[in-house]
Design brief:
CATH class of the domain at 85-188: Mainly Alpha
Largest sheet: none
Low-confidence stretches: 1-12, 21-25, 34-45
Order of helices and strands: HHHHHHHHHHHH
Distance between the termini: 46 Å
Structural class: mainly alpha
Shape: elongated
Length: about 260
């Protein structure tokens, strides 16, 4: 590929990477919620990876390395967040049942939290354990719940925090409120399952659209290498491949966004 497009891609990819490095504080917060950690010197690791890629793979090595540094962290964190939110939704269904049963058995809210932290798995158990630890350190129960609600940033958990806070300040039947919240969550999960089933064909289409051109290109390269060689060695062919790859990414992203329906 000509030098100008290569340098343009390098600067563009490094711009994405530097944007992620500039948002290191927010990344640390997001990774902390996911139970992950961020390297203390990501800039040095990025520079070392770029130099190594340049030496081993030429100019394209640094382009691909910088693109990975700029895009992959966002993809990984976003996927982990979605998975953790989905897991928390499922756990809250059992957790609300456990809390409701504990309160009916005569436990207070603190003892109910201890029960949930013992019986459930992370992330719900970790959230309850964090609330218990803050209360043991002298933080008011309402404040500990509100902090947990801000950190978790889950709609159902925020409703639980609101219900607990109102009950502690104004009084009321918390057992009934938890039962209503549990039933609402159950219906929401049922709708989400139906939506996932309804959009499965679209998601499969997105996967095929992403894989098919690469698979066909590989097959043609094996059968008729002279037919595909101009795309790999000619500057115009490389430019066309780059444009096709960019359009492929955009198309796959658009299909995934269309199929992502919130219940």
């Amino acid at each position: 590929m000509p030098a100008i497009p290569l340098y343009f891609l390098s600067f563009l990819c490094f711009g994405l990477a530097c944007r992620n490095l500039g948002a290191a504080g927010s990344w640390r917060e997001a990774l902390k919620k996911l139970g992950m950690s961020l390297a203390e010197n990501p800039g040095l690791r990025l520079l070392a990876g770029g130099v190594l890629g340049w030496v081993l793979a030429g100019g394209w090595g640094i382009v691909l390395g910088a693109a990975s540094a700029g895009i992959l962290p966002a993809i990984v964190v976003s996927r982990r967040q979605r998975r953790q939110q989905a897991k928390l939704e499922l756990q809250l269904l059992d957790g609300l049942t456990l809390m409701q049963g504990g309160l009916k058995a005569g436990f207070n809210l603190y003892q109910t939290l201890e029960l949930v932290s013992r019986e459930m798995d992370p992330p719900l158990a970790a959230i309850c354990s964090r609330i218990i630890s803050e209360v043991q350190l002298g933080v008011p129960m309402d404040t500990a719940w509100e902090r947990a609600g801000k950190e978790v940033a889950n709609e159902t958990f925020s409703e639980l925090v609101t219900a607990v806070t109102i009950q502690r300040q104004m009084g009321g039947d918390l057992v009934f409120v938890l039962g209503t919240l549990r039933e609402s969550l159950r219906q929401k999960l049922n709708v989400a399952a139906k939506l996932k089933s309804a959009t499965s064909q679209g998601r499969l289409t997105g996967t095929v659209v992403a894989i098919l051109p690469i698979a066909l290109g590989g097959i043609i390269h094996l059968i008729m290498p002279e037919f595909i060689r101009p795309l790999l060695v000619d500057p115009v062919g490389q430019l066309l491949l780059g444009i096709a790859f960019a359009l492929e990414v955009v198309g796959t992203w658009m299909i995934s966004r269309i199929c992502q329906v919130d219940p």
